Amino acid sequence: MMRTIGSVLMTVVIAVGIVISTPDASAAPPAGACNNPDPARPPVTAQPWAQQMLDPRSVWPHSTGAGVLVAVVDSGVDADHPQLKAPGTVLRGRDFHLVGNLPGNFDCISHGTAVASIIAADPVDGVGFVGLAPDAGILPVRVTDRDLTDTGQAAAIDPAVLARGIRYAADQGAKVINLSLAGTADNRYVRDAVAYARGKDALVVAVAGNGQQGTTERTLFPAGYEGVLGVGAVDQTGTRLPSSQIGPHVDLVAPGGAVLGATRAGGHQYWQGTSFAAPFVSATAALVRAAWPTLTADQVAERILATATPAPGGRGSPAYGAGLVNPYRAVTDGLVTAPPAGLAALTLTAEDPERARTAARWEATARTARWSLGAAGGAVALGLIAALLLGRGRRARWRARPARPLPEQPTPAEPPDQVFLLPHPRG
């Protein structure tokens, strides 16, 4: 089932892989905020392939994202989910979609909850799924409440609302802003909001977009704006999803094919698309910013790109960008920005005369020894030859003997002029 948030201006594509039955859990959005909300799902206990591939536990001894605030500008985040309800994990946030001073920490369609969980879901017993940066804080910024209209078309996100949400996230101190949405139009409100966030040292991460057709390259926004990390999606083989957009705005790729994420009102669900690849990169940015707090947003982006794992398309390809995000290397690699140091000039020292005379004496001694050994060996060989000749001469009484005649060689049979495979024909 495909679900979309967006319009000609801004679009989010959601492809749901596995949908399971409803348990008893329940969320508590404000009264009347959700129209036909998604049902709750049961938990999935198996460890997902994306967590196996990126191995977040190998990074946690070095960084867990503590102290870094990540804004999820989306459909809201369900703060009641068991893996997101720890104090300080999901802040109150703000709802820019509905009128009134409503929070952003509820979700009607689970999209934003899934994105937030990929970033910061806490480990719980009996569940293999976990966020990449579990100690990062989530600032939920709600800019939509639906994915489809009553007629089944993609619901629109007002660019002005999106722009206000991005500015709000930057003003609240978010150091990473996740935008799991994309559109084909360059909107000035959104462009200015992204520039405003960058001016406050926030790293903006956006999806490359879904809906790729053939090999045609196309730039989508806000991933196409200056300084934004554009993220494509790959499956568990590391191959780009056929729907993942290609173009110059693709900076790197992350897991996005059948990845697990949390759902509103508890439980988990498998999701598909670049919307769920972007939070892996946002979480990596949170890990880096916690481990390297003096780096600017642009330097964090450079570090993430420099440590990406090479992908099939080669570095800088329009389909894979710099490669597959590598959280462990992004945090632990000791990168240096200084150019390689030049080699010191080679200086020849003056030769010690006494040492040279000693070496010459040893060389002369060795040469004499070699000549003496060679001469002795030659004398021994001559003596052996002489003894052999004398012995043979005595046995022959010093008389000459005729040489032995050579053995007769058989005359080769000449083949006939014609060879018959069958018996020779009679005359």
UniProtKB/TrEMBL annotation:
Molecular function terms, GO-annotated: serine-type endopeptidase activity
Membrane-spanning residues: 371-391
Active site per the UniProt annotation: 74 (charge relay system), 111 (charge relay system), 275 (charge relay system)
Primary location recorded for the protein, binned into one broad class: membrane
UniProt key word Nucleotide-binding: no
InterPro entries: Peptidase_S8/S53_dom, Peptidase_S8/S53_dom_sf, Peptidase_S8/S53_subtilisin, Peptidase_S8_Asp-AS, Peptidase_S8_His-AS, Peptidase_S8_Ser-AS, Peptidase_S8_subtilisin-rel, T7SS_pept_S8A_mycosin
Topology in the lipid bilayer: Single-pass membrane protein
Domain Peptidase S8/S53: 65-323
Keywords annotated in UniProt: Cell membrane, Hydrolase, Membrane, Protease, Serine protease, Signal, Transmembrane, Transmembrane helix
Pfam families (alphabetical): Peptidase_S8
Region annotation Disordered: where it falls in the sequence: 400-427
One cellular component term from this protein's GO annotations in UniProt: plasma membrane
Signal peptide region: 1-27
Gene Ontology process terms (BP): proteolysis
Subcellular location: Cell membrane
Bias type Pro residues, positions: 404-415
Family per record: Belongs to the peptidase S8 family.
Cited PANTHER family: CELL WALL-ASSOCIATED PROTEASE (PTHR43399:SF4), SUBTILISIN-RELATED (PTHR43399)
Protein name, per record: Type VII secretion-associated serine protease mycosin
Protein species of origin: Micromonospora pisi
